[in-house]
Specification:
Blueprint (H helix, E strand, L loop, with lengths): L1 E3 L2 E11 L3 H19 L2 E6 L3 H8 L5 H8 L3 E6 L14 H12 L3 E6 L13 H4 L4 E6 L9 E3 L4 E3 L5 H16 L4 E6 L5 H17 L4 E6 H10 L6 E4 L1 H15 L8 E3 L5 E3 L18 H13 L4 H16 L13 H13 L20
Parallel strand pairs: 2-3, 2-4, 4-13, 6-11, 9-10, 9-11
Antiparallel strand pairs: 1-2, 5-6, 5-12, 7-8, 12-13
Helix pairs in contact: 1-10, 1-12, 2-4, 6-7, 8-9, 10-11, 11-12
This protein binds nicotinamide-adenine-dinucleotide, 3-isopropylmalic acid (IPM) and manganese (II) ion.
3-isopropylmalic acid binds next to helix 4.
Length: 376
């Protein structure tokens, strides 16, 4: 990535994947190209295979060419992988393996999943608006450890998934969460199951030590994951930064999507020690609506905004995208998941229209997730 007079040249690998993946990444890439045109940058977008589409074409869920392109890119934007076509439990290769391998290869261990309901969707969420008002949290999900990556065994009469965490894996994601909290409201909730799981007891011990030794200015509380599932819905406003292990973070963030009003709204950024990041909406390939042109593109578009901010250092541009999304929702442009009638393309065009009118320097108050240096 070169920087000259504020203009950026960046290489972004796009992995559309399966189901609604190609539909929502098309929206996000249109937004990235509009940002480049409006702000004078040059983004080279290179499309590669992943997931079921890659299995069909090459037999592998993450072909070597895709992995190599991602490793040498400035950032990676992914749609979603998986679907019924590749879900045979006896299949030797699954689309999801490609995504997990990519996360591991890129070393993106901290997955930031911001949850900040838009004013316009409060009445459209399945939860009462008075509970949702002023909710603003970021879940930091550990992304390259735990039962997802432990040893797996399958026998005729039993199966095993090992859940393993090292001190180092917990330390680095905990630091991420504490640094993030310092730039926000200064509160971290660490979620575990320390009353039952040994990995959770280690998790709690390490998070407590990192807090005591390095971040005692931040407030820390520990919460068991089962009651967290309840409090997330009953008093979501109380949370600032929530840090948790891989599987708990996966489950809690789908639940948290209901605070925002739809699975289609939540973006995510998967980050490691450098600036290279993997950006994807938190939702899946949604086989039930794939091919109909009605998927909500906003989670993917907001993921592109996170890409601009965290991998390319383009905060004004990220804020412009986020402001355009807010204006579109304020104007009553909703896809079917939010009870509206707009198609994916209509919603995307509405965002593009607001973006083309965006001032080139955007007031930072519009930033949904301000720039901070999260790395060492
Ligand atoms: P899902 O997230 O695909 O869908 C859950 C529900 O939310 C569905 O009713 C779907 O229609 C709806 N939904 C999701 N995204 C939406 C959007 N943008 N707009 C409107 N509605 C949306 O979860 P699932 O059905 O359990 O999983 C389907 C497949 O996706 C599985 O193969 C799973 O492994 C995969 N998956 C992939 C990812 C990823 O690639 N990051 C994430 C989750 C699930
Ligand atoms: C997600 C997805 C993935 C996960 C699957 C598809 C491997 O659910 O990104 O939330 O469990 O991490
Ligand atoms: Mn998930």
């Amino acid at each position: 990535m070169s920087r000259e007079f504020g203009a950026r040249r960046a290489t972004i690998v796009v992995l559309p994947g399966d189901g609604i993946g190609p539909e929502v990444t098309m929206a996000a890439t249109q937004v990235l190209q509009a940002v480049a045109a409006r702000f004078g940058h040059t983004f080279e977008l290179i499309t590669h295979l992943i997931g079921g589409a890659a299995i069909d074409a090459t037999g592998s869920a993450l072909p070597e060419a895709s992995a190599a392109a991602c490793q040498s890119a400035d950032a990676v934007l992914l749609g979603a992988v998986g679907g019924p076509k590749w879900s045979d439990p006896k299949a030797s290769v699954r689309p999801e393996q490609g995504l997990l391998a990519l996360r591991k290869v890129l070393g993106v261990y901290a997955n930031l999943r911001p949850v900040k309901p838009h004013a316009a969707t409060l009445e459209r969420a399945p939860i009462k608006a008075n509970i949702l008002r002023d909710v603003d949290m970021v879940v930091v999900r550990e992304l390259t450890g735990g039962s997802y990556f432990g040893k797996k065994e399958r026998h005729a009469d039993r199966a095993i998934d090992i859940c393993e965490y090292s001190v180092l894996e917990i330390e680095r994601v905990a630091r991420y969460a504490f640094r993030l909290a310092r730039s926000r409201r200064g509160r971290v909730t660490s979620v575990d199951k320390a009353n039952v799981l040994e990995t959770s007891r280690l998790w709690r011990e390490v998070v407590t030590r990192i807090h005591r030794d390095e971040f005692s200015d931040v407030a820390l509380e520990h919460q068991l994951v089962d009651s967290m599932a309840m409090h997330l819905i009953s008093r979501p406003r109380d949370y600032d930064v929530v840090v948790t292990e891989n599987l708990f973070g996966d489950i809690l963030t789908d639940e948290a999507a209901m605070l925002a009003g739809s699975m289609g709204l939540l973006p995510s950024a998967a980050l490691g020690d450098g600036t290279l990041g993997l950006y994807e909406p938190i939702h899946g390939s949604a086989p039930d609506i794939a091919g109909k042109g009605i998927a909500n593109p906003i989670g993917a578009i907001l993921s592109a905004a996170m890409l601009l901010r965290h991998s390319l250092g383009l905060s004004d541009e990220a804020a412009a995208v986020e402001a355009a999304v807010s204006q579109v929702l304020d104007a009553g442009v909703f896809t079917a998941d939010l009870g509206g009638t707009h198609s994916t393309q209509q919603a995307t065009e509405a965002v593009l229209k607001h973006l083309s009118a965006a001032p080139q320097a955007v007031a930072r108050k519009d930033e949904r997730f301000p720039a901070i240096d999260l790395r060492d």
